[in-house]
Amino acid sequence: MNMTLFQKRLTTAYLLLFTLYSLATRFTVTAAFMDGSINNTLYRLLLITGCLLALWQFVSVRKRLRSWDTGLLLLFLILLCIGIFLNRDYGLFDNIYGLFTFGFQLVLFYYLSHIMTEADFTWLFKRLILLGSFLWNIACIGSIAQYLFNIHYIGKYTADRGFVRQGITDGRLFGLFTDPNFAAFTSLLLIFGLWHVLCRTALRLIRLYAYASIVIHSIYIVMSNSRTVYLSVVGSVLFFVLFRFYKEKQDTYTTASSMAGHLFIRGLCTLLCLAAVYCIILFSLQGVARLIVPDRDTATEMMRDDIDGENISNNRFAIWSAYMELYTEKPVFGFSLRSALPYATEKNPEGYLAQTQYVTHNSYISLLVETGITGFLVMAVFLLALFVRVIKRSRSKEPVSDTYVLATVWILSILIFCLCFHDIFFTMNLETFLFWWGLGYLRKESGAFGSSNNQEKAPDSH
């Protein structure tokens, strides 16, 4: 068998397992089953296999990696190693695991475009999106049923972590998910993925399924009551609508002012439509629920006592302030990937972070605290240089593919979501996969860092 084709098949199988693992951690039942030793075993298997595949891929495409972005990413890895060495007294092995996790995902996902063609991506993502949406549909429907029928129950999660809230609690639909924020954000990512499926298939059954899935995911997003996801929805949908309109009508308007006026009107209509959809879903489901169960409760025994109506950030402002204060103690190389909390706990056991054990809840603060100003600046230069090239490519009159739009809107959604959640750099989850793949795809399509479609054609799979 052709080695390149064999490599693609192994990579495809791995990405399927990686996606299933990421989704399984967000279901209450599977997360409870996987907790502890099972989850550690699965994580290490994915880590080892991912490292081997990344090494194989690196050897296969190493001649194409002589570019500025590879140098910047290599420098970032070196800075990570320095941070790990300086913080070796605080979770050395956890930091090494984090380093290898970041390293293999960086190579495997960011450089995936080198071994997969556009047709490969279409085939792979179509199946991943259909499979993921099928599993998510079941959980979303089950969660909505909990809300409508007032099924307020609590379930045993693990022996050491106590109970989890399910049903509708704190005005939020946890349902069958461990966290409504990640559940709703996964629904948002799947909605854009289903749009891509609609663009790439003419089969009526699949199209009907995609439309129905979009409706189901939209309902759960509204009922999740996740403000961060709402922000991601508004930002990404607004960009999606305006960007597609701009590319389609680029040659129609002769002046920039006329184009700007039409973009403004279309953007305003988009915001009004989003608000209307939100109100229709929310008020209609609330009305149905009142008819089914007139005397609703909110499982008050499980409500949080550390937040109130005035705490609009759910403690995030306090968390960010605590981490920025902690950052000043090691500003150059940071605390490495897993050492900030152990350090804060040891140095100030009565402090806010030691008592709450909160992670940063912000990927950008996380990057600054964990890699210091040196790592933060290197990653910022890398991302800004890529985004500048992408913007130039987007402003040109050349058409862009729907895969290009998908990669762009996924990245934007993730970047907005990361304002309030941790993190996409050193963890193993769905967002990390889509983020680094999207960056690599945009790099290739936009010709960033000296790459181009002509220079970086994927190997022939036949």
Structure description:
The chain is mainly α. 68% of the residues lie in helices and 3% in strands. The chain is built from 16 helices and four strands. The chain has a two-stranded antiparallel sheet. Strand 3 (168-169) and strand 4 (172-173) form a beta hairpin. The chain is globular and about 60 Å long. The model is unreliable at 452-462 (pLDDT under 50).
Brief rundown of the structure:
By secondary structure, the chain is mainly α. Helix content is 68%, strand content 3%. The chain is globular and about 60 Å long.
Class inferred from helices and paired strands: mainly alpha
Q: Main β-sheet: number of strands, strand sense, barrel status?
A: 2 strands, antiparallel
What is the alpha-carbon Rg in Å? 23 Å
Poorly predicted parts: 452-462
Q: Walk across the major sheet and give the strand order.
A: 1-2
E-strand count: 4
Rough outline:
globular
- In whole angstroms, how far apart are the ends? 10 Å
Mean pLDDT: 85
Strand content: under 5%
Helical amount: 55-70%
| Tally of helical segments | 16
Q: In oligomeric terms, what are we looking at?
A: single chain
What is the string of SSEs from the N terminus onward? HHHHHHEEEEHHHHHHHHHH
Core attributes:
single chain, mainly alpha, two-stranded antiparallel sheet, 3% strand
SSE inventory with pairings:
Layout: H1 3-24, H2 28-34, H3 37-61, H4 68-86, H5 92-110, H6 118-148, E1 154-158, E2 162-165, E3 168-169, E4 172-173, H7 180-200, H8 204-224, H9 227-248, H10 256-292, H11 316-327, H12 340-347, H13 352-356, H14 363-395, H15 402-417, H16 430-446
Antiparallel strand pairs: 1-2, 3-4
Helix pairs in contact: 1-3, 1-6, 3-5, 4-5, 4-14, 5-16, 6-7, 6-8, 7-8, 7-9, 7-15, 9-10, 9-15, 11-14, 14-16, 15-16
